Amino acid sequence: xxxxxxxxxxxxxxxxxxxxxxxxxxxxxxxxxxxxxxxxxxxxxxxxxxxxxxxxxxxxxxxxxxxxxxxxxxxxxxxxxxxxxxxxxxxxxxxxxxxxxxxxxxxxxxxxxxxxxxxxxxxxxxxxxxxxxxxxxxxxxxxxxxxxxxxxxxxxxxxxxxxxxxxxxxxxxxxxxxxxxxxxxxxxxxxxxxxxxxxxxxxxxxxxxxxxxxxxxxxxxxxxxxxxxxxxxxxxxxxxxxxxxxxxxxxxxxxxxxxxxxxxxxxxxxxxxxxxxxxxxxxxxxxxxxxxxxxxxxxxxxxxxxxxxxxxxxxxxxxxxxxxxxxxxxxxxxxxxxxxxxxxxxxxxxxxxxxxxxxxxxxxxxxxxxxxxxxxxxxxxxxxxxxxxxxxxxxxxxxxxxxxxxxxxxxxxxxxxxxxxxxxxxxxxxxxxxxxxxxxxxxxxxxxxxxxxxxxxxxxxxxxxxxxxxxxxxxxxxxxxxxxxxxxxxxxxxxxxxxxxxxxxxxxxxxxxxxxxxxxxxxxxxxxxxxxxxxxxxxxxxxxxxxxxxxxxxxxxxxxxxxxxxxxxxxxxxxxxxxxxxxxxxxxxxxxxxxxxxxxxxxxxxxxxxxxxxxxxxxxxxxxxxxxxxxxxxxxxxxxxxxxxxxxxxxxxxxxxxxxxxxxxxxxxxxxxxxxxxxxxxxxxxxxxxxxxxxxxxxxxxxxxxxxxxxxxxxxxxxxxxxxxxxxxxxxxxxxxxxxxxxxxxxxxxxxxxxxxxxxxxxxxxxxxxxxxxxxxxxxxxxxxxxxxxxxxxxxxxxxxxxxxxxxxxxxxxxxxx
Length: 818
Description:
GO terms for molecular function: CoA-transferase activity. By secondary structure, this protein is α/β, with parallel strands linked by helices. Helices cover 36% and strands 15% of the residues.
């Protein structure tokens, strides 16, 4: 799909997945490494546990489909070589600290002067400007700064991270989307631009709109092992079984009430609940609990009955019942169980990639989506250091200067880069709507098809305006659906089908997130729709994909998070898994959805060929666990949860500070940072912290518990925000663990314009998050709040489809516009 395009990848650990996504989509990705290799090559785990720069499994995880050239960018020769490469490139991706490349004469302005069509992507911890732009960061501190950390862990211990780093992956995947939006703008104008990606903003997506708690005056959510707490209410999502754990939600309500009804009927059959419990109003149960009509004590009693029930079953028994009975249950997989998952095996997910230097093939996590016309291919194993230097230099000598192909050089920038894209949106809840919100932000016309008879559950999820549940009151719905239109249409009525057919003719893209059978039952499957529009692009995104033994598993991202292996990797080694906050994979999958659609649109732009895309959210999410999956495939090691420990850094943890449940995340990344930290503590306390036995990282790793105790005794005397600034002034990665109110008021997010106030017809104003990346020439255009149900029906029918008033009156009489 992207085979005509060349990408220069200058990323460190932050952002490596960006180049890999573009490479998997067909681009020629050239990694530019220093002579001793990229720093990621020194990150474990390693092939056969041998610390070889060509055997880093972290490097393998995010470097396939790339070539490698070595350049010393600190020298004039290396800088000149990069300039020559940039003259013939379409994208440059970098993750240096702001200003670093500009100091070498390789900044955005420098390279754009040589190649005005270059899309220059900068991935940093906090963005290119702002009060925290120069901050040192790590995975742990970014999770703290982005709001995820405070929502995860046991309430009687420190907040805890996932034991496989995640923050840089959110940033890198976001950057791939941003690069392709900028590319689409270039296709229309011939001009490149600067893309500015903030890892903090990318991570903030994982808070599931809880950043809106302050403007909506809602109850702050806090962590609770295997669930969440809202005030005095603790809801569980992880439950013990005979042989492990499962993910299961029982709160009830419009999104999961019918599933809970089925669960309670099964429990009653087997004697684990009484008839009164079985017959509760599960469709309204969440509202009953939150209003106090259902006492918390009664809710706790119900949860105890559910625990007794799950303890009587194995994970396999509960999964089988979920498939047979239509329940929201999924096992918490360990890494070995994920690799050996029969559903993934039947879908032939694992992809062998030959390593000739090892004399063997390695099974890699497979493609993040399945393209009907242009299947993703793993063309190259991760390169050895500088493996392609001579090859690339020879190519460079024969290349003529790159001239943009999409439009004449000097064309005016297009204000809204995706304004030529029309999307018919059948998605609901979170993953799909989050993706189409990104496209709407940059100008795409997105028409949501909705019905009062099959209401999007997200319309009834909190936090709410005025604390009142209702289909127009959900702040979460507002946040992920801003900028879209709503068409009210009853799909179950055959008379509505001609309207859908006309919308398909109008649309460039159809996207849906129903179960695999639904669109086929309505005859809206791809084969049916492409007869109406032969060049249609259609993407189906669901939990497990369109085929395989678990394809009919219903559920949300919390279940995919469990099956993938995320939840089992969160928590403390001496306790049950804590799991991640709500539907974690619903924050991963949308990035891959956007990238897939924009790549398919690019391919159609060149060839006129549309296609069908099957996106299993599980398979997309597994990209974020690749190092651990490869570690099991190669070394037979099952990654375990580690609390906040790190295999390379110490001290590395979350430490108490002044205030109730206030914390600071600190990651000492080098011996020099350790010396600086010790000097700071010694200055403030007069104690000689620098000792010979702690001077080197291996010594500190061997005494982690002792160091954590020393550090905690010091941090608890300080305000978290003040201490963050003090540590950052010494070049030490640190962040206060931001609450949702902190996040809302964070000066860096304020500087970035992360939160926007939009006019709303019912609530006067509603607050939403802005775009998580910045484009220098074609910024996001977010001016319209999420639609009231069906508010655009007349406009869509009359203006977009050209229906006459008589035609519309006929549709009203057929009772399909409801």
